[in-house]
Amino acid sequence: MVKRLGVLGLAAFALAGCGANDSVNASATVRCPAKAAAGWQRLANRVHEPVFCPAWIPDPLDGVIGSRWNNIDEVGHDRSYLESWVWQETGPGAAGGEKHVNLRGYPGRVRVPKCVDADSKQRKLIPCFSDRGGTVRAGGLTATVYNVNQDADQWHVLYAWRYGGSLYTVSEHVAPPFGYRKVRQNLDRMLRNLVAVRPTQQ
C-alpha cells in the first residue's frame, strides 16, 4: 500500500508558531496524551526536530506509536517520518468502512516533496500534494489544504504547514464512514489539537 517517497521539489507555503512540549497555541491547555507521549518523544529524539503529537484523533485510532492501530512507523535516511493509523471493518454483517490518518514530518525542508506518478510508465516525478483547497488556521498553525495526494496519502485530504524550518502534514482518507465534509471537520479538529514535542537529545 505504501510507496516510498522520492526526491524533493517545488512550492513552499504558510506559517509556523512556537512551543515546547505543549500546544503550539500558548493559550491552550492541550497536552500529548500520557499513553502517547513516550513514543512521540522517542521520535523527536530520533529525528532531532520537533514532532507533532495528536491530542485528538478519530476513534478508535489512538495516535500511540506502536499501538495495534499504528500500521506504519517509519523514519527515512533523510529523517523524514511517516506515522500511520488505520482501522478497517469488513466481512459478513459488518457495516464496512475505514479510518486512516497519516502524520508526516520533513526535518529541515519546507518544500512539497515529489512522488513517482503511478500512472506514468516513465516513473515521472510529480508533487506529492496538489490541488490546493485554501488555508485553515487553528491551534497557532496555518495549514494549506491539498485535495489530490500521492503515496500513502492517496485518496486523502491533506493539511500541510511549516514549523521551525520544517514541513509537516496530517491527512485522512475519504472513505466510509466519513465523507469529504466530515474528513475536513476531523482534520480541523486534529490541527487544533496538535502538540509540538521537542527533542530532549541531540
Q: What's the quick description here?
A:
With 202 residues, this protein is mainly beta. The chain has 2 helices and 12 strands; from the N terminus they run βαββββββββββαβ.
Helix content: 10-25%
**Whole-number mean pLDDT:** 86
Instruction: Please state how the strands of the largest beta sheet are arranged side by side.
Output: 3-4-5-11-10-9-8
What pattern of helices and strands is seen along the backbone? EHEEEEEEEEEEHE
Q: What is the number of independent domains?
A: 1
* Total DSSP E strands: 12
Largest sheet: 7 strands, antiparallel
Unreliable segments of 5+ consecutive residues:
1-23
Q: What general outline do the C-alpha atoms trace?
A: globular
Cα separation of the termini: 33 Å
- Rg over alpha carbons: 16 Å
